Amino acid sequence: MSDTLNVLQPEHAILPQLAQRRSPRAYTNQPVSTETLQQLFTAAGSAASCFGEQPWRFVVGSQQSSPEAFEKIVSTLAPFNQDWAKNASAIALAVAKTTFSHDGNPNAWAKHDVGQAAATLAIQAVELGVQIHQMAGFSQDAARAAFQIPADFELVSVFTIGYPGNVDALPDALKERELAPRTRKPLGEIMFEGGWPTAQSEDYSVAKV
């Protein structure tokens, strides 16, 4: 199953899963099966990491198989996010182990690696007809307390997991966001071949405010 709403139109050809990846707020009531969840997090676990540390940890709540955990995670979200996230099939808390296991030293790349794992999961999700929506709007303190997460782990983000639904079911403000054209900065603003651009060569007039 392919989600073809608001597909990104990139400057150059990329994998279709990358162009179809988006962050929906409308979900169907179709459950995401345990097998599919396991595939998603297996994909996350395949990501690269510094020293092969694999610092990512995910606390998952499913409406079908672990409803108490689902409700706990939803309750840590900002009210704006709770309104739509409660309709997803599952939700996950992404956590980073902040020290290396082999020597106990701080791992400055832990959050970067958790981001890589989440991105890998997101692309696997598209392949399976699922979409995720990552959020920063949650209470780290509430989530830590709810799941007794140790001090040497840092909470990174929360993301919903589900099959994208009908945007017409959303309030007008959220529907507008869902249907707003997906754009990305031009390649020239993010890729500097040969070195960092000088002030004279930068063109801020084309930057999106």
From TrEMBL:
<protein>
    <submittedName>
        <fullName>Nitroreductase family protein</fullName>
    </submittedName>
</protein>
<feature type="domain" description="Nitroreductase">
    <location>
        <begin position="18"/>
        <end position="163"/>
    </location>
</feature>
<dbReference type="GO" id="GO:0016491">
    <property type="term" value="F:oxidoreductase activity"/>
</dbReference>
<comment type="similarity">
    <text>Belongs to the nitroreductase family.</text>
</comment>
<dbReference type="Pfam" id="PF00881">
    <property type="entry name" value="Nitroreductase"/>
</dbReference>
<keyword id="KW-0560">Oxidoreductase</keyword>
<dbReference type="InterPro" id="IPR000415">
    <property type="entry name" value="Nitroreductase-like"/>
</dbReference>
<dbReference type="InterPro" id="IPR029479">
    <property type="entry name" value="Nitroreductase"/>
</dbReference>
